[in-house]
């Protein structure tokens, strides 16, 4: 994570996140809301951060 820009994603983070997304079997580049919710709830991010996603 970049302290100056917490939303900046490193190449390694992008690769890991892309692999995780692919494992969710997206259809036409999308996953359904329940699947997204389940993944995001497992992230342990605080609610105020999740609200911005």
Automatic annotation (TrEMBL):
Protein origin, superkingdom: Eukaryota
Protein name: DUF4148 domain-containing protein
Lineage, broadest ranks: Eukaryota, Metazoa, Ecdysozoa, Nematoda, Chromadorea
């Amino acid at each position: 994570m970049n302290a100056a820009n917490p939303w900046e994603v490193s190449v390694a983070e992008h690769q890991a996140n892309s692999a995780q997304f692919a494992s969710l079997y997206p259809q036409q580049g999308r996953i359904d809301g329940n699947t997204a919710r389940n993944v995001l709830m497992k992230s342990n991010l605080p609610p105020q951060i999740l609200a911005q996603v």
